[in-house]
Amino acid sequence: MSFKREEILCLFDIDGTLTKPRLRILPSTEEFILNKLMPKVTVGLVGGSDLKKIAEQMDDPNLVSKFDYVFAENGLVAYKHGQLIGKMSIQQHVGEEILQKFINYALGYMSKLTLPVKRGTFIEFRDGLVNVCPVGRSCSQAERDQFAEYDKEHKIREQFVEDLRNQFPDLGLVFSIGGQISFDVFPKGWDKTYALNYVEKDGFKEIHFFGDKTAPGGNDHEIFEDPRTIGHRVTSPEDTIQQLTTLFQL
Ligand code: M1P
């Protein structure tokens, strides 16, 4: 198998693909990506989280200089070789009226939920998306894990998203479950395929995408299915390493 580094791009989701959900990358995974994979292919990260959280998980405050591309918030905040190359604002795009209509409804819905525990920050406003979290983002790791288990059984997020889709069919907003305790809300088209707009002009022969939430409704679905990418569904960071080892004969 012979190819040049600049011909192949590998894009990675973070939670469940390079790290366990919301946890830091393991030194062995980092070592594999940086020292085995990166000398062979171009590498980018495409996370739903904001840059601060991605940097925490990748254990490097300066991670934008470490990888060829870093796409935070699905690519709505985009870096190439350490330089900011794009930033979108949901506020400007959607407008305050629609945003408040949505936020007020979502807060009302969450006020009627009874969960094992409820903490704070139920809506987190980011640059390119709004994150909605029924348990509250300030929960502890143990409370996060507890909600994730509860949600598997009681489908709190699935029902919430279903309700929002019925309630707001015409707002042009997408509701996407990416992590363990929350879901993201953004304008149609502002899913992870947004990141492809930046890389498609860079002339790669192949763009591979690795993610775990590839089913419909998951935040890796659109980019996984996109004709511009070769999609790889993974089940854990170990599986990601296994698939890369086979694919690129590392
Ligand atoms: O995996 C990406 C998701 O990570 C977090 O999800 P949660 O807190 O629910 O585990 C959030 O940052 C979310 O926006 C993001 O899509």
Low-confidence stretches: none
Strand content: 15-25%
The level of helicity is 25-40%
Output the number of helix runs: 9
Summarize model confidence as the mean pLDDT: 96
> Could you give the order of strands across the largest sheet?
5-4-3-2-1-10-11
* Ions and ligands: 1-O-phosphono-alpha-D-mannopyranose
Radius of gyration: 18 Å
**What's the main sheet like?**
7 strands, mixed
CATH topology of the largest domain: Rossmann fold
CATH homologous superfamily designation of the largest domain: HAD superfamily/HAD-like
In the CATH hierarchy, the architecture of the largest domain is 3-Layer(aba) Sandwich
Described by the principal axes of the CA atoms, the overall outline is: globular
Function: Involved in the synthesis of the GDP-mannose and dolichol-phosphate-mannose required for a number of critical mannosyl transfer reactions.
GO molecular function, one term: phosphomannomutase activity
Cofactor: Mg(2+)
Binding site for Mg(2+): 13, 15, 212, 224, 226, 229
